Amino acid sequence: MKILHVETGQHLYGGAKQVSYLLAGLQQHGVESHLVCPIGSAIGRTVKESVAEVYEVPMRGDLDLGFIWRMRRIIRQVEPDLLHLHSRRGADLLGGIAGRWSGIRTVLSRRVDNPEPPAVVRLKYALYDRVIAISQGIADVLLEEGVAAEKLACVRSAVDVEAYQKSCDKSWFRAEFNLPEDTLVMATVAQLISRKGHRFLMQAMPRLIQRYPNLRWLIFGKGPLQEELRDEIVRRGLQSHVQLAGFRQDLAEIYPCLDLLVHPALMEGLGIALLQAASAGLPIVAVDAGGMPEVVEDGVNGRLVPGGSVEVLGDAVEQLLGDESLRREMGESGREKMRRSFSVEQMVEGNLAVYQGLLNTDNAT
């Protein structure tokens, strides 16, 4: 079996990280993988020659019509059995058109749960033979939008649980983020964009600080809201309690040193940061929306709250910060849940089953 994959992410996190897991896993199953990615991307450097043949091409987004012809040339060169499109930024629609014009079976992975206009849904999803939702929450959105159930498959994203089984280097951690010794530390790991909901936790911070004066909130990530968040921290006088910590490649070392992960996003397909944090044994406060309830079970490995509710969010965070034994218990439950339901092998086998189902249908006809 020969699969041509398309991933547009420049950095090796989120969807691109999932694709790297998939390519390595498919290699173990004897599948030949080829990858189309942006010039200079991290995933290209990571998988080149080891698990996939890499084709680096310009990718300029939804209006880059030349991408269709670039893809068609690669399809003719590779002659794959299937085309698997893993991301948006033009790769989904334009890649789907290239696949359709080339007469090749095409699979799309959908990683976000935001709705699309009905006219877009009708035209776009007609291009794909199968659509893989990375959570049941995303699958439900697609069903509501009119995508046929027989075209859908749910294959959840995965996490390498063992990569997050590290102990905390407390001296390094305190020095790295300038933290007093007795600090309670919670974190949010997300793009700095509006739908990630940082503003709701920001509004809850004065109350939380009053209850826990030694509380610190580390905000990991980057994005267009960085300056706005920085101004809000100053406006509220939170400089001693809230830190914009930027994008980090060493989260596996950071998670074990945290007391709590808070993810107040209004929308989330699944949430890779949630999988990572749970693997590291962290309790989580998240929103009861999208795919997040598939990762966080309320009262088991964290708390689920309504999106946008500052008061309920504050209550949940306050409860967990005040109970170390509960945090430890929930953290262990989360780690076991990751091993049980979100393993890399399960994700690889799920995608492979979709490929085999399509190819077997072709062979039967």
Question: How much helix, percentage-wise, in residues?
Answer: 40-55%
CATH superfamily of the largest domain: Glycogen Phosphorylase B
- Please state the second-level CATH architecture of the largest domain: 3-Layer(aba) Sandwich
Question: What separation lies between the terminal Cα atoms?
Answer: 18 Å
Domain tally? 2
Which percent range describes the beta-strand content?
Answer: 15-25%
Low-confidence region ranges = none
CATH topology descriptor of the largest domain = Rossmann fold
What is the gyration radius calculated from CA atoms?
21 Å
The mean pLDDT is 93
The CATH class of the largest domain is identified as Alpha Beta
Shape: elongated
Biggest β-sheet strands, sense, barrel: 7 strands, parallel
Structural topology:
Elements: E1 2-6, H1 15-28, E2 32-38, H2 42-47, E3 53-57, H3 66-78, E4 82-85, H4 91-102, E5 105-110, H5 118-124, E6 130-133, H6 136-144, E7 152-154, H7 170-177, E8 184-189, H8 198-211, E9 215-220, H9 226-235, E10 242-246, H10 251-254, E11 260-263, H11 272-279, E12 284-287, H12 292-295, E13 302-305, H13 310-321, H14 324-341, H15 344-364
Parallel strand pairs: 1-2, 1-4, 2-3, 4-5, 5-6, 6-7, 8-9, 8-11, 9-10, 11-12, 12-13
How would you describe what is shown here?
With 365 residues, the protein is of the alpha/beta class. It folds into 2 domains: 179 residues, 3-Layer(aba) Sandwich (Rossmann fold); 181 residues, Glycogen Phosphorylase B (Rossmann fold, 3-Layer(aba) Sandwich). It contains 15 helices and 13 strands. A 7-stranded parallel beta sheet has the order 3-2-1-4-5-6-7, sandwiched between helices. Strands 10-9-8-11-12-13 form a 6-stranded parallel beta sheet, sandwiched between helices. The longest helix is centred in the last third of the chain and has 21 residues.
